[in-house]
TrEMBL record:
Signal peptide per UniProt: 1-29
Name of the protein in question: Alanine aminotransferase 1
Disordered: annotated span: 95-123
Database matches in SMART domains: FTP (SM00607)
One family name in Pfam for this protein: F5_F8_type_C_2
């Protein structure tokens, strides 16, 4: 009787082939001669590929040994491998296939391998969700600057009645702005949107003359007169002369000696970047 020890990847490969050959030889012998010869005996191995693989002793009839050694040089695959593993090894077919194809030692996989997979990585939020808004003043607690950047045209921001009221979007880094789309409130106050300027730059408006909103950053567009003609309508303000670069996009109403104070109220503001 030939004996094979399966204590490493090469031995396991040979063992799988020998088991298959033995099963085929015994089946043919039992069917043809009826001599009642006992099938090859095995001692079932522990999980294949473990830290300390069990040594397995398998005995075969001499007639099957030559065939088994020849088959050991070829990797098992398909239905042959699946049947053999299911009967003798109890090891996931994918693991044994990797071993027999010479890609390294086989590793026993759990029945539900998908349960062991790590969860998919969490994607960062869309860029616009990281922007924050602020305004010169707030008329109430429910009309803060963020209401014009919440993707809900039913809400709105509103300043108090003041000189040079402004609203700005902090994009967290300098970006190239192509245009700004402004949506008016869906009520009678839409006509407050007039004499509007859009500026882009790296400075926030301040309270001094030098940092006044109409003195800082680069002018994107200045629009005299009524911005929209009906409530709830939008106006797309394209920067003249091409994209303007900066961290802050600021909208303000130009006041003058004839219009010393105004209220800036916005339903939605979206910025198109280059």
């Amino acid at each position: 009787m030939d004996q094979i020890h399966a204590g490493n990847a090469e031995g396991r490969h040979l063992l799988v082939a020998l088991l298959l050959a033995a099963a085929a030889v015994n089946t043919c012998a039992d069917g043809a001669s009826g001599d009642g010869a006992a099938p090859a005996s095995t001692e079932a191995p522990a999980a294949v590929g473990g830290a300390h693989p069990t040594r397995v002793l398998v005995q075969f009839k001499a007639a099957a040994a030559a065939t088994a050694r020849a088959q050991a040089a070829q990797p098992l695959k398909g239905l042959q491998l699946k049947r053999l593993l299911g009967k003798h090894q109890g090891v996931d077919v994918r693991a044994a296939s990797a071993a027999t194809a010479g890609r390294g030692p086989a590793q026993a996989l759990p029945a539900d391998a998908s349960a062991q997979r790590p969860p998919p990585p969490r994607l960062p939020p869309p860029l616009a969700f990281t922007f924050t808004a602020r305004q010169s003043t707030s008329a109430s607690a429910t009309t803060g600057a963020a209401k014009a950047n919440d993707r809900n045209a039913a809400t709105f921001s509103s300043t108090t009645n003041q000189a040079l009221p402004w609203w700005t979007l902090d994009m967290k880094a300098a970006r190239k702005v192509l245009s700004v789309n402004v949506t008016a409130r869906n009520d009678a106050t839409f006509n407050q949107l007039k004499n509007v300027e859009v500026r882009v730059g790296n400075s926030l408006p301040g309270s001094t003359a030098a940092t006044a909103v109409n003195k800082i950053n680069t002018l994107c567009l200045s629009k005299s007169g009524q911005l929209v003609t009906a409530k709830g309508k939008s106006a797309n303000l394209v920067c003249s002369g091409g994209a303007k670069s900066g961290r802050y996009v600021t909208i303000h109403i130009k006041t003058s000696s004839t219009l010393s104070k105004a209220t800036l109220s916005l339903a939605e503001v979206t910025v198109k970047l280059q």
